[in-house]
Amino acid sequence: MSRTVTIKDVALRANCGVATVSRVLNDSGSASPAARRRVWDAAKELGFEFSDIGRALQSSTTRTIGCVVPSLANPVFADAVQGLQEKLQQAGYQLLLTCSNYDPDSETAAIRTLLAKQVDGLVLTVCDAGKSEGLRFAGQRGLPCCLMFNQPTKDLAACFVNNFEAARCVAKEFAAAGHRDTGFLALRFGSSDRSRQRFEGFVSGCRDFGMAPPVLLEIDEDGDNLSALLADMLTAHSKLSAIFASNDFLAIAAIRAARQLGRKVPADLSIVGFDGLEIGTMMEPSLATIVTRPKLMGRGAAETVLAVLTGNPPPDPQNKSLSFNFREGGSLAPPRKAEKNDDGKVPASPSSSPTLRKSCDDKTKD
User: Which CATH architecture has domain 7-59?
Assistant: First the structure.
């Protein structure tokens, strides 16, 4: 069985001290050109690889960043992680990734595990930034940390979308289409503070745009009984003509459930999502939704953590509220009672081709 080559072996082959080998391989100190050449030649001949563990012990850094997201099943988180990883790799850092499955206890355990692995910083999407036990542990360590998707707290920077204002935008679109009685389909608020913030914004928009208060339906992340719950909701609220889902996955599931109940989308029920997943443009009808920029969110979170680690000023602004847009789609149309114009003619059905409406972003308070 072959023996692992050590730094002492390299020093003997290069005819120099261990400290010289360490300085050369770490590029952390002075050494003559001749000594550098001997060290690198010896390391290559012996097949020596400087251990990341040894490097960490010497430099008090692991060159790793920990990340916790709720799930990778939802592409919005996968896109954000991709942007995060690309930026970290450019800076010479590796990403340690774990998922919490929208569970606060799992989230805390995941953060504890990353802290035990001595990560240099953290990028986190937590269930509830205001109540997260894991965030408290991270704060006690004093590590550079940035939230992603969650809105900032008094102690932590964040790269996020203003969920409240984006949801007001959806209410405005419903009102413009003639809807008055609507519902809000949400992941349970204890699992997602983003879901709660979107509901609060939607409630505000419905009030300001002259609509009835929305009916709330909270479901678990798996959504196994969505059809039955939706049937109960529509039976109890017969005037309901539109639903805003707190993410695109839920919106797509709601469209499927509505069809199982014999409801046509959008003729019987309009449905709007949140996130702007590309799959929504491939559906029939296409999904009307709020479009966000998750990959840019991940890159921004990486920049924030890296700035602290390298002693540079954080990005300006440190808390990045990213832009959003409303993407029109075939899943949103006027309710049946609003279909006729003053001349008695029925307007053409909305195009199923998605259109990005850029004007939505900053005009939700009009």
Answer: Orthogonal Bundle (1.10)
